[in-house]
Amino acid sequence: MLALPVRSEDNDTHRGYLVQTGYPDVVIDDIKKRALHRTKIIEGQLRGIEKMIENEDYCVDIITLSLAVQKSLGSLNKLLVENHLRTHVTEMYEAGGDQRDAAVAELLRIFELSNNRG
């Protein structure tokens, strides 16, 4: 999401941040393919956890799979950040000014979020 200093019809708020919802969608084909593959793996892992809980499987086995899901989500996030850097951030930096500042703010927010979760 692109944080912007002004609000227009194409903008919305999300968790207190002003975001531009009309920003062009750009996903690099290879990254899109890998990200979709990763989501299918995560989906299967989550179904597995659900079944393990229903079957009252051994807690350590459930935790092990849960940790694998977290690692898979980390891999997915890495792909999404890579795409964002190669597309949107590149465009924002080239635009300069407020767009460049917004790109820096976004990246700092992502960094903070990744360090506050655990």
From TrEMBL:
It holds the Pfam family Trns_repr_metal. GO terms for biological process: negative regulation of DNA-templated transcription. Signal peptide: none annotated. One of its GO terms (molecular function) is DNA binding. Transmembrane segments: none annotated. InterPro entries: Metal_Tscrpt_repr, Metal_Tscrpt_repr_sf. Keywords: Copper, DNA-binding. PANTHER family: TRANSCRIPTIONAL REPRESSOR FRMR-RELATED. Belongs to the CsoR family. This is DNA-binding FrmR family transcriptional regulator. It comes from Agromyces ramosus.
